[in-house]
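WARN no homologs supplied; continuing
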Amino acid sequence: LVALYKRGERAAAPLDLNTLVRDTTDLTRTELQMRHVGVDLALAAQPAAIEGDRVQLQQLLLNLIFNAAEAMIDTPEAQRRIAIGTERAGGEIHLVVADRGPGIAEADLPRLFEAFWSTKTSGMGVGLPICRSIVQAHGGRLEASNAPGGGALFRAILPASPAPDR
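OK structure emitted
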């Protein structure tokens, strides 16, 4: 936790967020299969180039994926899907993780990123605050909402690196 909160100690390097998403979903494949959760990727056609700390960004994505899987514990198995996408929007890269669970109670939305606050009975309330800190350390912001068709949607908005000359 201390390493995540220290300023100026990120190992920032150019990376493609699409590659990070593919690598991270490969890491989670077995665990998600055991939970009967499928993953749908919708990655930007062009590299989602950012400057970032690969380990921290992977931790962000792992937390969002496992939170999504846990949120769908009472969802019928055939409907347990996590959608992960990237898209370039102007000078930003959006990383979206959405589930098909019950969504987030409107009253809970303002408190989601508070340290030591959780909707989970066994939750410590540190996962989402750490996620937000990681995104903020990368010059971005993390937003949570309910998806239009149901479920929760988390969007990390990060500054894009300039597209490389071809």
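DSSP finds four helices and seven strands in the chain.
OK
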